[in-house]
Every structure is written in C-alpha cells, then in structure tokens.
Amino acid sequence: MRIAVVGSGYVGLVAGACFAELGHQVIVVDNDEPRVAALKNGQVPIHEKFLPELLQRHRGKRLEFSTDLHEAVRASQAIFIAVGTPPTDRGDADLSYVESVAREIAGAINEYTVVVEKSTVPVYTSDWVRKIILRNGADPNSFDVASNPEFLREGTAVTDFLFPDRIVVGCDHERCCAVLREIYLPLTSGSYYESADAIPQPDSAPIPPPIIVTSTKSAELIKHASNAFLAMKISFINAVASLCESVGSDVSQVCQGIGSDSRIGPRFLNPGVGYGGSCFPKDVMAFRAVARECGYDFRLLEEVMRINEDQRERFLRKVRSALWTLRGKQLAVLGLAFKGGTDDIRESPAILIVKALLQEGCKITAYDPAAMERTQEVISSNVKFANSAYEAAHGADALLILTEWEEFANLDLRRLREKLRYPIVIDGRNLYDPEVMAEQGFTYYSVGRAAAHPDGVPAALKPERSRQK
Ligand code: UGA
Question: Relative to the CA of 344, which ligand 1 atom is closest?
Fold first, then answer.
C-alpha cells in the first residue's frame, strides 16, 4: 500500500517507520522543515527503542520524509493524520491542526483515498473531518474517513505497534475497511512474525493480534476510554496507597492480592508520584470535556485528576516530614522523565516536584539517563546535572527517586550510602524493599508502605497520620 503519515511526532514517526517495516511505501509529512531535514539526514529526534534501526533500514527506500502534503496525498491510498491535539485552556482538545490538514487533503484527493485519524481525538471528529473535506470541494465518493487509534507507549512504541494487544479499526463502509485490513494484514496474518529480520517479540504478545472492527465513533471512544481507564487504575491504587499509609499496611501486598484477580490484573497497578506524560493528563481532561459536551457529567474523571495531583503533594509532604525544613537543603534527584525508558518530560511529575522543591529553597543535583537535556530547556537555574546516580548523591541531605528507570532499581546501595551526607532515601516509585534498605543503613520512605529505619524503629509515617486527625 502507498501510505502518507501526517505529523512526525511520537505517533507519526513510529507509525511511519512501522508501516514501512510491514512492507508499505510510506511518506511521512511534516511542516516543520528543520525536523524533516534532520530526518532525511538520518537523525532520530526521539529516544525510542528499535526506532533508529527501523529508520536506518527503510529510510530512502520504503520510507521518505517530506514537507509537501499535497504531493504526499496524491501519491497515497491512505492518509494517517497523526498531528498534535494539545489541550486548550478549557481542557478540551485543540483540533485546529487536524482541521487544517483535512482542508489541505481535500484539495489534493485525486483517487479513492482513506483518511485515517491516528491522533487521539474526541468522538465526532471523524464527522467533522468528513464535513471539512467536503466543504473544501472533494467528491463525496472519492474518500472515506476512518479511525485507527494507537495504543503505543513511549519507550516501547515500536514493539507496541508491531506486537499489539489488538488493532482497532473504526470505519463505516466496507471499502474503507478493506484498505485498513490490507494495511495490517502482515500482522493479522502473522506473516511479519515469520520474517527473519522481524523486531524481537516481547513477552506475552498475542500473535497474531486480533483486529477489532467497529464504527468510527466507537473507535474514537475506545481510545479515550482506554487511556481514562488506565489513568483511573493508577489513581485508584494511589488512593489505596494513601489508605495503606494511614493504617500501616503495605500497598505492594495489597496490589498482589487484588492484581491476582484475573479480572483486575497486576499491570498499571503501581503506586507512585502520579501519572504524567503527553497522553493521560491531556486525555483524561479531554474525555471529561467531551462527555460534558455530549450531555454526560463524568465526575469520576474529575476525581481521577484530583487524586493524581494530590499524589505529588503527598510526596512533597513526605520530603518535608523526612527533612523538617527545606530551605538550603541539598537534594539528589534520580529521574526527570515522566516514566522510565524515555527522554520525554511533558507533564512529568518529577519536573513538577523539582520545581516545587526549588521554590521551597532546596538545592538540587539531578540525574536522568535520557531526559537531562530536555530538562535544561525548562529549568535552567538552581539545578545541577550529574553524570550518574552516585555523582548526584554526593554530599546530599537525601536522595529522591522520581522516575521508574530500571537502572535506579539496581544501584550499589553501599556505594550510594557512602556518597550521601545523610542516608535518607525518599522513593516515589517503590523501587526497593523497605527491609533491605533498612538493613543497608538507610532511612527509607516510599509510597503506601511504612517508612523503614536502620535501627528498626517501627516506622509508620507519623507526621502524615497526625495531620489527618
Ligand atoms: C499511554 C498509554 O499507556 C498508551 O496505551 C497510549 O497509547 C498512550 O498513552 C497514548 O495515548 O499515546 P504513555 O503515555 O507512553 O502511554 O505512558 P504509560 O506507560 O501509560 O505511563 C503513563 C504514566 O503513568 C507515567 O507517568 C507512568 O509513570 C505512570 N504509571 C504507569 C504509574 O504511575 N503506575 C503504573 O502502574 C503505570
């Protein structure tokens, strides 16, 4: 198939590279000229496992980059719209980029074309895209609009695309459906997985993945509802973690107990400093706004957002209760990205916590394996950046863990303790066993579990409790 992907952000670039990997002829279009030039020159603008290999493999062969949308539309049978849908001040999604792409597509269609929403958009967007294309002069029989939401996670985007749990295709006409089925045939038939140079299969991927064909509106809702549900799962366990802190029980035991119920499952049940990133915060807010517009007051989502914000505040209270006053304290911060495995700091709880601590007069030395360059663009003063976790810890009054990078879960604890001025660790991601930390001589605070002390003093979070009384 000949495919155009409009937008070279996380979704567009990964989708473009993966469609080429499936054997299609792909043009990725972006109006950001320097970005397109960089992509043509072989640069990889995002930190994503296997993406450099795929770009290298297909660039200049099955994968091209261009700023010319008109020409790309003319050359393609399917156009995937993967442009940004940032939140407006009201919390709903700003669809102006989608609209302007739809307008441009209208003027270029010359044979039957399937226009596919890949960006996360509210229900009814497909209706609007269709109207805009018609309004701008396209023949009603020359195109269809479909929705094909993407469920990729940053850091594992390529394997999520090639080994998905499911492929959701929303289309209202068989002709359009057939085009999308053909695009995904290498996955749904299993033929891709037989090729010798296929990307290695992650654990527990259903092969071949099922394809779920729905109406366009249902597919639009599936995307928002999936993200909102996952965010709700995280907020739920964070609320349970707060309760565990109040009663002195252990959230990891509670998670094991509830996550073993196959109806609930253990994934996305890790408590922490709250969810961040470019998707959950924006999508929960947008879904709430869409529901309101459609006449349903989805207050549950309000609470999901409130718990998420509260989770950061609770963490800051923990830092205060561990260190008493904060002005002038030297803190080591491990993790700036919104989660492990990415350099993305958008809506990162770590960044918000660092900013709050700076405001309270702390001095911070931070380390993140991938996100320090991006952080320097948003926080320039009062933060030093280190080359390793141990360098960050050097002389610090306490160490804070804010992102779940794998390397932070495997630190040499003895070396770490020797570097710190005081052996205090406040872990916002529950990467360590409290007992082990106490044995290693740390005072250790985590989320939803009692604090642990080297002298073995029973370690309930007393300040938190007394505040609640
Ligand atoms: C999320 C969804 O997981 C994808 O399915 C979806 O395609 C994507 O949004 C999107 O809409 O584009 P992503 O934002 O990359 O993917 O990140 P997640 O892995 O979902 O993590 C989101 C946040 O939740 C991170 O801050 C992470 O640290 C936090 N999290 C995740 C927890 O606090 N606890 C958990 O158990 C899991």
Answer: 15
